[in-house]
């Protein structure tokens, strides 16, 4: 049964993959795939925390802590499961620094940020992040660094962790 599910996962993943097809859709997918990078979000949030208005500093601090906690959860799961990433050449930085694909840390982080944003930022920004989050996950599949199940599991984990952090607040 599990083998059958994995085969369907690989088949669906391959249908969504565009990493080897040059063009504007691939360029967009590449930008979206990178837009969920942890360093990008941490750097931006640290800058907001240091230089932003008081009302945004607390938000930035909360999101920084949530991202770091999330990273610990994701790495623990990745190194427990050790599922290899799909074969491919795009995303060598991800392949070299983190050879494991399950769950997608980008999908976890994107959904975590989107979920938490509904309680922390203006509604217009929360809506933008809610649209952006699944696109990040799908772009990771499209660019060949994750299987579809990595992203689905990552999104579920991101929603759970986001709601959990909000509950603790």
Summarize the structure.
This protein has 169 residues and is mainly α.
Question: Would you mind describing this structure in some detail?
Answer:
This protein is mostly helical and 169 residues long. The protein has helices at residues 2-16, 24-35, 38-51, 54-81, 92-97, 105-120, 123-142, 148-168. The longest helix is centred in the middle third of the chain and has 28 residues, at 54-81.
List the helices and strands and how they pair.
Elements: H1 2-16, H2 24-35, H3 38-51, H4 54-81, H5 92-97, H6 105-120, H7 123-142, H8 148-168
Helix pairs in contact: 2-7, 3-4, 4-6, 6-7, 6-8, 7-8
Strand content: under 5%
Alpha-carbon distance between the two ends: 40 Å
Q: What's the domain count?
A: 1
User: How many H/I helices?
Assistant: 8
Overall pLDDT confidence = 91
- Based on CA atoms alone, the radius of gyration comes out at 16 Å
Biggest pleated-sheet summary: none
Return residue spans where pLDDT drops below 50 for at least 5 consecutive residues.
Answer: none
**Helices and strands: which structural class?**
mainly alpha
Q: What's the helical proportion of residues?
A: over 70%
Keywords:
mainly alpha, 169 residues, 78% helix
């Amino acid at each position: 049964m599990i083998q059958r599910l994995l085969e369907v996962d690989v088949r669906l993943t391959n249908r969504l993959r565009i990493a080897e097809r040059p063009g504007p859709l691939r360029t967009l997918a590449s930008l979206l795939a990178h837009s969920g990078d942890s360093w990008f979000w941490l750097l931006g949030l640290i800058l907001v925390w240091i230089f932003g208005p008081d009302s945004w500093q607390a938000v930035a601090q909360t999101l920084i802590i949530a991202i770091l906690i999330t990273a610990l959860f994701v790495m623990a799961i990745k190194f427990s499961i050790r599922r290899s990433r799909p074969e491919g050449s795009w995303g060598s930085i991800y392949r070299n620094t983190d050879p494991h694909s399950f769950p997608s840390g980008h999908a976890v982080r994107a959904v975590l940020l989107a979920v938490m944003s509904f309680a922390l930022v203006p509604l217009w920004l929360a809506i933008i992040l809610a649209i952006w989050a699944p696109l990040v996950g799908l772009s990771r599949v499209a660019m060949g660094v994750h299987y579809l199940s990595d992203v689905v599991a990552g999104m579920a984990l991101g929603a759970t962790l986001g709601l959990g952090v909000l509950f603790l607040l």
